[in-house]
Write a structure and sequence with these properties.
six-stranded parallel sheet, Rossmann fold, 38% helix, alpha/beta, 20 strands, 3 domains, 23 helices, globular
Length: 563
């Protein structure tokens, strides 16, 4: 076997895996980057902050269906990964972090940038490991890629100490691990679930992020058609079914609209697929159809019955289980109840279109997002943030997701800035699609330093900044709590247009509804010409979605009383 140093073996592993991009910031170039130079098929993406590296890798993984890869240097570089790894862990995102570490020679003695990396990473990683023997590099990387993508996906953390990195060893060649390992559901449980679904008068399917992670989109559509059952999704489940499809009704929980609430609330049987049904998805488990029977499908037994107690549960891969259910359930004739729901949805969509028409008043977020649909069309990937105004982008049909894997949404941690930075990773993964990030000004300020990365990487993202010069969600709660406003307004802030232009980004400011369509057309044209674009939209700060208002009242007991 050839003598090699670990970083040489790491780069050979990345090349064997077909890795296109590695997101991060170099420290000592002898740790990864000198060896990366000899592998030109792997392009390093120089981020401006290490957390951004995780966000870009997550978004890349989400829309490409592949593993995202990132690197950080020791000490604060590694520590800056923690918020991103936290988000990736809860998003079940298949990312591999290969991180440099201080040498073990003087461990515990105060060596430069000595950090308890494994202790920080273990609670928020599927696997966290230190490479102690150089000859184990290939095995460690094989294991990292296998664990990141098989079973319930998740982030994997590999630490390479500097002294190990400097040691040559007889290292076996890299072998790509087995992948696509899937477990079908137990036959008897499939039959019990099929009986419940077959007997349902008003079934509804709730599709979570696990549908996309398993590549179960076609299986989901087939079962929905087979049952003639409405499909609603969690934010992470968007992109599982085109939101202009007949049986697609929108989102659940905090993000629900009239068209998604009705089939969900009226359901007598719910099929939950690949979703934890956490607080925002379930409304603290208060927004659950009264008396509905529940069938839960998840790849992880830990998630079964974690909050909602199912009548039948099937542990298995979402695609295989959905295919099994389609085979086991008799095909349903078209349901009059579903036809009624479709007609109701279509009427609601017409009312939304009228609601979003320019009216001469203050610019409203829904007017901006409804225009985004018209301008960017079906080949658009939406990248979300999660603030008071950018929540409008979750409310279908104000904005619809129609592309396959067409949405990158935060997980339940909702780390601000994931979308702002992550949009670049999404564009690198799908350069043939428009990538639009909808963000508030609060989240945008946290990660706007990544704009030059989009320029450098020829990743023409479009950022739509909904600017209310405040932390709008926090301010709404302050208003509902007696108008005790404190530390929620930005009294001094950036000129986003000037910052963007200085970075080489096409940028405009708009404040009237009549300006929205032309400005979006110019942003699209810039993107198609390879230039990232930004629209700074001065919006009405007190226009919140009805679902947002209802959730705060019904779930959290908060309400704003207008004078």
């Amino acid at each position: 076997m050839p003598l090699r140093r670990p970083w040489q073996a790491v780069c050979e592993a990345l090349e064997a895996e077909g890795v296109e991009h590695i997101f991060g910031i170099p420290g000592n170039p002898e740790l990864l980057y000198n060896d990366l130079y000899d592998h030109p098929s792997i392009k390093p993406v120089l981020v401006r902050h290490e957390t951004s590296a995780v966000f870009m890798a997550m978004a890349y993984a989400r829309v490409s269906g592949r593993v995202g890869v990132l690197h950080a240097s020791p000490g604060p570089g590694m520590a800056n990964l923690v918020p991103g790894l936290l988000e990736a862990f809860y998003a079940c995102s298949p990312v591999v972090s290969v991180v440099s570490a201080a040498a073990r020679t003087y461990e515990g003695m105060g060596a430069f940038q000595e950090t308890p990396s494994l202790e920080l990473a273990r609670p928020i990683s599927k696997w966290a490991v230190r490479l102690d023997l150089p000859e184990r590099t290939s095995w460690t990387m094989e294991r990292a890629f296998a664990l990141a993508q098989n079973g319930k996906p998740g982030p994997v953390f590999v630490e390479v100490p500097a002294d190990v990195a400097a040691t040559e060893a007889d290292t076996p060649p890299y072998r790509r691990p087995l992948r696509g390992l899937r477990a079908a559901g137990d036959h008897s449980l499939i039959q019990r679930a099929a009986e419940l679904l077959a007997g349902a008068k008003r079934p509804v399917i709730v599709a979570g992020g696990g549908v996309g992670l398993s590549g179960a989109e076609s299986a989901l559509a087939a079962l929905a058609e087979h049952l003639d059952a409405p499909v609603v999704t969690t934010p992470s489940g968007r992109g599982s079914i085109p939101e202009d499809a007949r049986l697609a009704f929108g989102l659940v929980g905090l993000y629900r609209t009239e068209s998604s609430a009705r089939p969900y609330d009226e359901a007598d049987v719910m099929l939950l697929v690949g979703t934890r049904m956490e607080e925002f998805q379930s409304g603290l488990w208060k927004l659950v159809p009264t008396g509905a029977r529940i069938v839960q499908v998840d790849i992880d037994p830990f998630e079964i019955g974690r909050n909602l107690r199912p009548d039948v549960a099937v542990v298995g891969d979402a695609r295989l289980v959905l295919e099994q259910l389609t085979m086991a359930v008799p095909r349903c004739v078209p349901r009059p109840t579903t036809a009624e729901l479709v007609a109701f949805k279509e009427a609601f969509q017409r009312s939304v279109a009228a609601e979003c028409a320019p009216d001469g008043g203050p610019l409203r977020t829904k007017q901006v997002l409804n225009a985004v649909n018209r301008v960017f069309g079906r080949k658009m990937i939406l990248v979300n943030e999660n603030g008071g105004q950018d929540l409008w982008s979750y409310y279908c049909p104000y904005l619809k997701v129609t592309a396959h894997r067409g949405c990158v949404a935060p997980a339940e941690q909702t780390c601000m800035g994931l979308g702002v930075a992550g949009a670049i990773g999404a564009k690198l993964a799908r350069p043939d699609h428009h990538v639009v990030c909808v963000t508030g000004d609060g989240a945008f300020q946290m990660f706007m330093q990544e704009l030059p990365v989009a320029v450098e990487q020829h990743a023409p993202v479009v950022w739509v900044v909904l600017n209310n010069r405040s932390l709008g969600w926090s301010k709404w709660i302050q208003r509902a709590s007696g108008e005790r406003y404190l530390a929620s307004d930005f009294e001094a802030t950036f000129d986003f247009v000037a910052v963007a232009k200085a970075s080489g980004v096409h940028a405009e400011r708009i404040s009237e509804a009549r300006e929205v369509g032309p400005a979006l057309d110019r942003a699209r044209k810039a993107s198609e010409d390879g230039v990232p674009a930004l629209l700074d939209c001065t919006i009405d700060p007190w226009d919140f979605p009805r679902g947002f208002v209802d959730f705060h009242r019904d779930v959290w007991g908060l309400e704003v009383h207008h004078s």
